Amino acid sequence: MNEEEIESTLITCDQDGVRLDAYIGSMMSGVSRNYVQKLIEAGDVLLNNQTCKVKKTLLKKGDAIEVILPALETLDVLAEDIPLDIVYEDADLMIVNKPQGMVVHPAPGNYTGTLVNALMFQAERLSSINGVIRPGIVHRIDKDTSGLLMIAKNDHAHEWLAAQLKAKTTIREYVAIVNGVLSKDHGTIDAPLARHASDRKKIAIVNTGRHAITHYEVLERYKYHTLIKCTLETGRTHQIRVHMASIGYPILGDPIYGVKSERVKHTGQALHAKKIGFIHPTTKELVTFDSEVPEYFKVLVKKCQGLA
Q: Quick one: 66 exposed, middle or buried, by C-beta within 10 A (0-12, 13-18, 19+)?
């Protein structure tokens, strides 16, 4: 493997007594613990500049860890015949309704079964701006968030759509079920977001973080839950999930920011990207797309209603 084929990630341990594999997994987003263990066993993890092949090694605060990964750009993404709900398609773009549980693009330890693998099979052409690992991907939603995504089929469309996201002119509306009954009919959460200082899988409200604004509106109230609409001004990682949890109304089923004991059991957050709108790259007209909430979401609404 030559220098161009190697990507190295440096991590400094900030706690004592944590296992090497567990700590790397918590610090590197999108990397599974199983994949980390394989890297350790292959000698691709250095601890204080020495190869360490013992995954159970207990770390000390200040330990220097180097993780060697193959550069994503050198990997081949396989086209897979995975059914997709394509809401709209033309020469420039696709609007895809992603199911809950599907990862948007491949990442270390998770190279198959993603939306990109499905797109490689379905589309004759995708934009190349984000490289071979993320062709056509203009923006993302979490694995367990369902809903609409813009997919660019050429570089001009990609740049056009990305510019609107940056300018905050796209329309992005979500529906969610939150724990607790909101007293206000609507509100705005304006709180900056950044990666959590000690848990790299989490996003937190940090004064020095990136600007983030979420508007919410109550659609229905139940005995213990509330159905809401969220409109984004910005699109930060985990934005709705962190913002709603910060005011005491976490998303139902959220495994990271939710409550440990819930009256309605569900795996994955009850969050659906329902509507999206933007100026079309060729026609220069405003186009909007709406989606029906998926079956899992309807079931959860009925369960919440049944608790009354």
A: middle
